[in-house]
Amino acid sequence: MAATMTSVQRRVLTIAALASFVAFLDGTVVNVALPAIRDELGGGLTTQQWVVDAYLITLGALILFAGSVSDAFGRTVVLRIGLIGFGVTSLAAGLAPDPVFLIAARAAQGAAGAFLVPSSLALITEAFDGPVRGRAIGIWTSMTTGAMIAGPLVGGALVDLVSWRLVFVINVIPIAFALWMLRLKHTSDERNTDASIDILAAVMCTLGLGLTVFALIEQPNLGWGDPAVWATFVAGIVLFTMFLLRQRTSRAPILPLDMFRARNFWSGNVATFFIYAALSLNGFVLSVYLQQGAGLPATLAGLASIPMTLLMVALSSRAGALSDRFGPRIFMTIGPLIIAVGCLLLLSVSGDFNYWTQVLPGLLLFGLGLSITVSPLTSAVLGAVDAKRSGTASAVNNAISRVAGLLAIAAIATIVGGSLDLDGFHRAAIVTAALMVLGAAVSFLGIRNQSEPSA
């Protein structure tokens, strides 16, 4: 494949992969550190949920804003802002003296991460075209999704050998390398000098999501009758509805609703919601249960994800190329169904825990299904819109995946029945499988392989 790329394209792909790697890694690496954070800083399941969701709220809400900024003012400048901000906030999280400071640092970290993902993927769509674009997206997918899955391994080793704080501080190394590579990028950005950014819409989106998630997380503790729950839930829904209404009339919408007229764009994003809600739910529950339920140390809990990582790295690029050849529909249908079967195999986990017979078979199917699904899904969504709007399209898709994840994490207490014991683990596996089946159904019914007019 290297022979089909120019040196500039290889450099762009490296920068894009590194920038996305740290954002995706930090979305999952923290999962395996949650028990250690609880032990040192205090707090129960609610605090653990907030450490994860504070990051996902700002990432999911501001990624739309960042996508429009990227299209308007250039990918490189937005990427540089995101890298610097992510490095600073990672250090702040690593030095957190208490849960409140850590949650605030995680929210700021998510805001910085919002500027990384859409800009990095838009760099690829600008630098590559034709069949090589599918392969480039496949490599980007294997790196970024591999980061999501390898996160527990990296986090586990750092937690056991040094401290959970290094889980955040270690981000500085790939960020510094990406910034250095960015200096060597000799291509210029395309900027829209007439563009304007809707700050009010960004505020509505962020507050709407934040208040809704606050209510979902606190509801198991306070109950729906508490004003702190129902009032914030209603306020969040109202604000997010106002945000959507504003997008219909805004001169510069951060969520262009007209993009959803393209069949593959709207159906791909609906599939994304179900698939990534399942991924986030599974990642959180598996990492925490292997430690708190099965009694594994953090390193071994992280090592559990190695089979999925290897499959993703080995197969994602090939899946991207095959998707370009045969169309994404079959891959986006079969992949989630394979993952669903893998989730159901986790029901064999019992009090007499055995990783090799109860967990590994399901994780192998999980990794195979992910390898088949993610790259074709990304290609289908981005291929449905004009390349000039690739930053916004990528931002919408990534925002939906993050929002799906934060809602799944917010609902964990309800899904597992208030406690992540063996019964709760089994309930989470069933819900994860059901979400994957929904993702497969949407892909089969909604995705079309033939070309369609770009939105």
A few lines on this structure:
The chain has 455 residues and is mainly α.
Shape: globular
Question: How many distinct beta strands?
Answer: 0
Strand content: under 5%
- The unreliable regions are none
- Radius of gyration over all CA atoms, rounded: 20 Å
Under CATH, the topology of the largest domain is which? Growth Hormone, Chain: A
Q: Provide a count of the helices.
A: 19
CATH class of the largest domain: Mainly Alpha
Number of domains: 2
What class do helices, strands and sheet pairing give?
mainly alpha
Q: What gap, in angstroms, lies between the N and C termini?
A: 30 Å
Sketch the major β-sheet: none
Determine the CATH superfamily of the largest domain: MFS general substrate transporter like domains
Q: Can you give the mean pLDDT?
A: 83
CATH architecture of the largest domain: Up-down Bundle
N-to-C series of helices and strands: HHHHHHHHHHHHHHHHHHH
Estimated helix fraction: over 70%
